[in-house]
Write a structure and sequence with these properties.
By secondary structure, the protein is α/β, with parallel strands linked by helices. The chain is about 50% helix and about 15% strand. Strand 3, helix 1 and strand 4 form a beta-alpha-beta unit. Helix 4 runs parallel beside helix 5. The protein is globular and about 65 Å long.
Length: about 250
Amino acid sequence: MGEREAGVSVAVEERADRVVVTLDRPEKRNAIDADMVDALHEVCARLERDPKLLLLTGGADGIFAGGADIAQLRERGRLDALAAINAGVFARIRALPLPTVAAVDGPALGGGAELAYACDLRVCTARAFFGQPEVRLGILAGAGATHRLPALVGEARAKEMLFTGRRVGADEAARIGLVNLVVEEPGELLAAAHGLLDEIAKASTLALRLTKLAVDAPPAAHPHVDLVGQAVLFEDEEKRRRMTDFLQRKSR
């Protein structure tokens, strides 16, 4: 287990096969401010240079992220919007080479929900809930929810959430496909998220990377991206080793 590094607004723990990032602004309900965005960019830079799995969490203390920092958001103008401050880092998280898991306890609202959507998979506690209250604050959900949420839960349900700001609890989130797993107790959250990553880590790293690229590719890229990815993997020594091991086990 790696050492925990204290940052301005996130804590980063490096492990052999994964990086654990904990949002760390409890006094502001983990509101996403400029310092947190910068810290997340630094994490992305590390994972782009040295690909590992990512676990992103607010911990199991009843809060994931209460959204963007409203005090900062209120002062932003049109040029700030065009700079894609939150959208840019969330897109970078979405494009990381290896799978990412968000572990959500308590509220994931506004930009906090969009941060969770940017991850490939989501695990949450029974007391978690998601919501997009932006229209009630006079803005839109501009950091990914307008396209990631429909892909996750369907257009009509996504529009309802985006138009009304209604909060979606854990059970409903699981039922509509917004989260992959719900645990009853907060103390079980990180173990469940690590368990999911443990299962992912059993796979070929290159196969994971190319599978993620294929899944995230636009429709027009198929079947070409699948064919090229499979061609690369068919020549990979790891594929030969894994298939040989499988056949040997089967023959016993």
